[in-house]
Design goal:
CATH class: Mainly Alpha
CATH topology: Hypothetical protein af1432
CATH architecture: Orthogonal Bundle
Number of helices: 5
CATH superfamily: Hypothetical protein af1432
Number of domains: 1
Structural class: mainly alpha
Largest sheet: none
Distance between the termini: 36 Å
Strand content: under 5%
Length: about 100
């Protein structure tokens, strides 16, 4: 429960401290820093009633551009190095939203 609580509490914080509560850097729980990157990637590549999905490579570029600002640079590096695994998950669990 501690991990779940930390993720819920911190995953919208920004690495540079400009998030909701101004928590920054490594003061943001490690699990939340990881979930933040995965959550944004999923939001960008997923179809929503209000937007079309981004191409995965465009979402990747956006996340890389936010390294050190919105996201922990170490987590972004791990995301980039394991991008193929994110694509595997994306293919395994495609959107089921229908218009």
């Amino acid at each position: 429960m501690r991990i779940s609580s930390a993720i819920a509490y911190h995953h919208h914080e920004k690495y540079d401290g400009t998030g909701y509560m101004g928590i920054k850097g490594e003061d943001i729980d490690l699990y939340a820093r990881c979930v933040s990157v995965a959550d944004v990637f999923d939001a960008l590549v997923s179809k929503r009633p209000y937007k079309k999905p981004w191409l995965p490579e465009d979402a990747r570029k956006e996340i890389l551009s936010q390294s050190g600002r919105q996201f922990d640079p170490v987590i972004v590096k791990a995301f980039d190095e394991n991008f193929d695994k994110f694509i595997e998950v994306l293919k395994k669990y495609p959107d089921s939203y229908e218009e």
